[in-house]
Q: What sequence folds into this?
């Protein structure tokens, strides 16, 4: 490649014919420049209809994330919490079941069973044999 470059450097430069130069420049003057679409990145083109609104949404999300991180308990506080034993979980589940049964029982059963009224001529719990013996 070195020899080729040296050979090219020794070659004299020739000028283009003046007619060609004139034709090329006239064609360039008469050509209308193409309108290029704006070279916006895809994400900016997507956000462009309302960039201020999107910026506000992004700031709100950053605020939410910051508050979430700030409200986490410290590692020392988390480590200080006592682990829950299996017996404690079992006792809590038994208590929860008892409360649920109590709530459903109270909802489905009335506080006192209804009393039957004694009416003349009704059986009122007596058997029919005792009525016939009386009559």
A:
């Amino acid at each position: 490649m070195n020899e080729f470059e040296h050979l090219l450097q020794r070659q004299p430069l020739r000028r283009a014919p003046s007619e060609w130069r004139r034709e090329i420049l006239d064609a360039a003057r008469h050509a209308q420049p193409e309108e290029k679409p704006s070279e916006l990145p895809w994400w900016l083109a997507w956000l462009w209809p309302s960039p201020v609104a999107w910026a506000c949404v992004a700031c709100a999300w950053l605020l939410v994330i910051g508050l979430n991180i700030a409200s986490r308990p410290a590692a020392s506080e988390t480590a200080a919490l006592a682990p829950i034993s299996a017996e404690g979980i079992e006792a809590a589940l038994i208590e929860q079941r008892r409360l649920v049964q109590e709530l459903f029982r109270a909802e489905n059963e009335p506080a006192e069973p209804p009393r039957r009224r004694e009416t003349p001529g009704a059986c009122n719990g007596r058997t029919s044999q005792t009525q016939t013996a009386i009559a």
